[in-house]
Design goal:
Layout (H helix, E strand, L loop, with lengths): L9 E3 L4 H9 L6 H22 L2 E4 L2 H5 L10 E2 L18 E6 L5 H18 L8 E4 L5 H4 L6 E4 L6 H5 L1 E6 L9 H8 L4 E4 H7 L8 E3 L2 H12 L2 H18 L2 H15 L5
Parallel strand pairs: 1-2, 2-3, 4-5, 4-7, 5-6, 7-8, 8-9
Helix pairs in contact: 1-2, 4-9
């Protein structure tokens, strides 16, 4: 696009990819740290350079926009993802698992979150919930994740219909510690009326209200307290699930965001000289 400024052009950053790499540095081993630092610097430079080649720019959330380190980042228009609330709706079925996590299981932030569940949260929860059952589900589970399976934890790969994974859990858990962007997994689970527990990092883009339509934790103690209270109280789970559904219906309507995008493209046709 460098020499094509006569053509109306819009850059979709999706999310702040450089920030995602930066967050991985702290949890990486000595071999990967310098590689990721180099990749972070390259990506940040690329994000800044690419800005200049396009007349218009969009991104998935205001927090990701703020993480684009360009002096004109406030010019980037936020157009969020939506959710098909008709497809992802509440299904009343028997819950096989206490906790469910869903995601692409070859993606580093998801591997990190699933490992955190298995190695840190599940052992603490089983002290009071000896029959705890956890499902970690999604495509392409890494060998590292498959090795986490035990009497409490099931790791399952491909689902023909991923709603089966969501609906099998009493509580949806997404303790994301690294990564960027809007977590579609949370939108899907909330749309299905499943009470959700996540991190402040993941909620930074989602902007749900802690204690009202989602629960937010940032330590093992936080998560254990929240999850235990939900597992012990079915009415509490029901209420939080209902409020989560209302939240996505109100704030993540596909039609609204599609219309914003269509209007943006229509408006930019005037760029042609």
């Amino acid at each position: 696009m460098k020499d094509q400024h006569h053509i109306p052009s819009t850059l979709d950053y999706m999310d702040a990819l450089s920030k995602g790499i930066e967050r991985r540095i702290s949890i990486s081993n000595l071999i990967m740290k310098p590689i990721l630092k180099m990749e972070f610097n390259r990506l940040q430079q690329f994000e800044n350079l690419a800005f200049e080649f396009f007349k218009h720019h969009i991104i998935i959330s205001s927090s990701d926009r703020d993480d684009i380190m360009h002096e004109k980042n406030k010019q980037i228009k936020v157009i969020q993802n939506g959710i098909d609330t008709f497809y992802y709706q509440t299904i009343d079925v028997e819950k096989k698992y206490d906790l469910v996590f869903v995601g692409n299981l070859s993606y580093v932030p998801n591997i990190d979150a699933a490992t955190y569940i298995a190695n840190h949260l599940a052992p603490e929860l089983t002290k009071s919930k000896s029959n705890l059952k956890v499902l970690i589900a999604g495509s392409n589970p890494s060998s590292k994740l498959l090795k986490l399976q035990n009497d409490q934890i099931t790791v399952r790969g491909w689902y023909h219909d991923i709603r089966e994974a969501y609906e099998s859990g009493k509580v949806f858990l997404a303790p994301m510690q690294i990564g960027t962007g809007l977590q579609n997994k949370l939108l899907e689970a909330m749309s299905m009326g499943i009470p959700c527990v996540t991190s402040s990092l993941a909620n930074r883009s989602l902007k749900a209200v802690n204690g009202e339509n989602i629960y937010v934790g940032d330590s093992v103690a936080d998560y254990v307290e929240i999850i235990t209270s939900l597992l012990d109280d079915e009415s509490k789970r029901q209420k939080m699930g209902n409020e989560g559904r209302k939240f996505v219906e109100k704030n993540y309507n596909w039609d609204v965001f599609n219309n914003q995008l269509i209007q943006l493209f229509k408006d930019k046709q005037g760029d042609i000289e």
